[in-house]
Amino acid sequence: xxxxxxxxxxxxxxxxxxxxxxxxxxxxxxxxxxxxxxxxxxxxxxxxxxxxxxxxxxxxxxxxxxxxxxxxxxxxxxxxxxxxxxxxxxxxxxxxxxxxxxxxxxxxxxxxxxxxxxxxxxxxxxxxxxxxxxxxxxxxxxxxxxxxxxxxxxxxxxxxxxxxxxxxxxxxxxxxxxxxxxxxxxxxxxxxxxxxxxxxxxxxxxxxxxxxxxxxxxxxxxxxxxxxxxxxxxxxxxxxxxxxxxxxxxxxxxxxxxxxxxxxxxx
Length: 267
Prior knowledge:
12 helices
C-alpha cells in the first residue's frame, strides 16, 4: 500500500487532494497509480513512436491516455499542462513539440518512480535537517562519489555541482569505486545503473556489504517496476531520471546532505 506521508512529498501531486483523500479514494488512487506504473513504459514508447512519425492525431490520443491517468492520481497541474498543449497541438512548431514531449515524458517517468518508492520502499528516507548547533559548519556532510562508465556524464555532473558547496569525486567503474572506498567514506553515492562488468545494482550491494551506510541515488532512464524494485532492494534511497538537469540534481542531493557554506570573505 502507498505511504501517504511519502505521497505528500511528491511535488507533482496535489498536496491538498492527497491529504484529504478518504480511504475509498485512496483505494481508487492506488488502482490508478499502479495503472501508470505498469503501463507507462509502453505508453511512453507509443508516444515516442507517434512523435517520431509526426502523427499528431495518434500523438494526441496517446498523450490523452496519459493525462487521464494523471488526473486520477491527483497530478492535476501536470495533466492540465499537457491538456493545454493538446488543445492546439497542430499549431505547435515541430521543435517545440519535441521539446515539450521529451520533458513531459521525463517528468512522468520521475513521478512513476516516486510512486513506486512510496509503495515499495521499506526503509524511511533520510533527510538533511538544518542543525542549530554552532558547530554545524564543521559537521556538514557534503562529499559525493559519482560512478558512471561514461566520462562525458561524469564531467557533466562535476560541472553542474561546481561552486555549489559539494565535493565530488568521479570514478568510471565499479571495481575502481570499491578500491576507492577502502580509504574513503563518501556522504552520498550517485550510481549509474547500466555499467559493464559491474552494474549499479551489484555495486550498491557491495557498497552496503562493505559497511557503508550513506544514501545511494541511482541514475536511470528506466521507470519499469522490476528495475525500480530491484534498485530499492539493492539499497536505493532515491533516483534521478536522465537526462539530468542541475536543478534536479541539487534537489535530490539536497534531500540527504548539505553543501558546505563558505564564510563571506568580504566581512
